[in-house]
UniProtKB/TrEMBL annotation:
PANTHER family: MUREIN HYDROLASE ACTIVATOR ENVC, PEPTIDASE-RELATED. The keyword Ribonucleoprotein does not apply. It comes from Massilia consociata. GO terms for molecular function: hydrolase activity. CDD domains: M23_peptidase. SUPFAM superfamilies: Duplicated hybrid motif (SSF51261). This is Murein hydrolase activator EnvC family protein.
Amino acid sequence: MPFTKSAGSALICALLAFALSDSAFAQRQTERSRQKATAEKQRAGIQQRLEAIKRDIARTESEKEDAADELAASEAAISDANRALRDLAEEQDATSTRLHELSTEGERLGQTIVNQKKQLSELLREHYVAGNEDRIKLLLSGDNPNRINRDLQMMAYVSQAQARLLASLRANLAQVEANRDKVENAQLELQEIAAEQRQQKDLLEQEKAKRAALLQNLSTRLVDQRKQVDRLQRDEQRLGGLVDRLTRLIREQAEAEQRRQAALAAAKAKAEAEERARALARAKAAAEKAERERIARQNAKPGVKPEPEPEPPRIVEQPRPAEKPTAPPPPEVTLAPAAPSGAFASLRGRLSAPVSGTIAARFGARRGEGPTWKGMFIRAAEGTEIRAVGAGRVVHADWMRGFGNLIIIDHGGEYLSIYGNNSALLKRPGDMVRAGDPIASAGNTGGNEESGLYFELRHRGKAFDPASWVKF
């Protein structure tokens, strides 16, 4: 049966179909789901530490009823939903970009495979037209040896070209398989994101309606409580207690990490010293052996081969039992930022404002008949982005009586920045942030009557005036 180009194409198509026959994808967990589950486990450890701090503060809390407390669950849920929607939008953009790149790569691979199929068909056709002679027939033909050698070399070249082309084709088929797997994973992730977005939007609308109804019912009580001096003092004490506990925890973790690093350095230095001692001992033994052999050669009689000196018994070093680490184990939750202790202090006077708005209250000003302001209140429309004034790590992101949705960032050197009354918190405890990163949205949570941001700076737990640090 003569070989035709169409037959060659059919053969390659059959090979392609066989290679992709197992490419049907079963339902499976996406890579996004696996990463999300891992991140949630890590956050659970951080949240466990912070919940313990909240319980300590609650045990010292004398006031059991506050109108703002009835808003807590709803305001926290609104914050969570807004953060989830923002995270999902970012994921959606990144996944869509990745899907576009995969589609482009898939088209390129498809065109490459088409070209390779065509080349392979041409090689097979030319091989058939040339007579389809095999090497045994050629060797037994009795033809001119030069011609036989030339034909054998030509056949070898053709075979090598076919082998290279087939190897490349197999590699590209494997890439097509991997590409299709990634494409389907990205598509499934987009479906997951869309479903989660629908759920979060529904939840957000429900919680907003619930909060609006609560505000209407609690309006009189909230107004009355805002005028209570002792309530303002308790709010300040509550925040101060939280800051003190966080500062102590961060300091303890930093000291533990220093001890651990010192122990590791000492263990490494000890191991290096022991290795140097063993190397010196081996070098000394080798030098002594060489000296004994030299003396033996000098003392040997002419014509008499000296008896080989017996080698001293080899000492096999037994593995030493592993020493118990002297350093404390690393903390389960690391809240201290990976930043030099003096980095934040060096930025004094050059920090960017956390939000664009009007300063309604300044540090040190009297709050009616109550205590003085420990920070600043900046009026801003609800939903306005709140940005980190400096790089650091989020050590608190939760609702707190008197301050609503509150986020605290540790900048190293025992400097903290505090952002309160937010409608949404966009970061979680443990997240690293850079200067200027969006971390929250302005609001009036915690029973505040105006929308905006309550902002503080603290060093070693003590509040100080942000005006000389931040460019408002």
